[in-house]
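Thread: "does anyone have the structure for this chain?"

Original post by V.I.:
We have the sequence but no experimental structure in hand. Need at least a predicted one for the grant figures.
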Amino acid sequence: MNTVGIVGGIGPESTIEYYRKIVAGYCKRDAHGNYPQVIINSVNMQNMLGLIGAGEFDEVADYLVVELNKLAAAGANFALLASNTPHIVFDKVRQSSPIPLISIVEATCYKAKSFGMRRVALFGTKFTMQGGFYDEVFLQHDIQVLTPNDEDQGYIHNKYMGELLNGIIRDETKSGLLKIAEKMRLEHDVQGLILGGTELSLIVQNEDIPSFTVLDTTEIHVESILESLE
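Reply from O.Q.:
Generated one for you, tokens below.
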């Protein structure tokens, strides 16, 4: 049986969701009552986000490679970064990783392509919305990624960092996010919304926005992980 390694803690709430979803999904697929082998390395979120905020991307990559080496030494056959934001250095990390990595961005792109999407909105931290790493992958498949205006980006980032990362779910925040999504649908004719922050799925679900498809990056990432565990 393969063993998956998770670089988690970025943040803790979504890491918990990853573990729950991987276990539940694996048990549902396995007819023999087996459970998946999972190793979690929960890293210092503030340290990593501080480096990203300072633009120290080489240091971020080096930090993540060190943590991936710990997972490999513990027996992981492949790994993932349980967060969108550190994918800003994913290509560099992948080159130096001792074990294969599954990209949340690539998995989400394949899902959007399977739906025939050509234009999608992206929510996440400011690092994700402004980092360009979603655009790079999606444009290779002729899918345009649009982000909210500066004011709305500030709102999403502040609510994400101040509330969602700390497990705080508020109805007024959900309403605010849905208003921004609907505005982007009307102004840019987007066909889907990328929840480009793994905590966003804790507050926004597909049934909340019936006018277009929500791409839950956590759920999509987990699907790819389960396929690799088989």
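V.I.: this helps a lot. The radius of gyration is 17 Å.
O.Q.: and The first strand starts at residue 3 and ends at 8.
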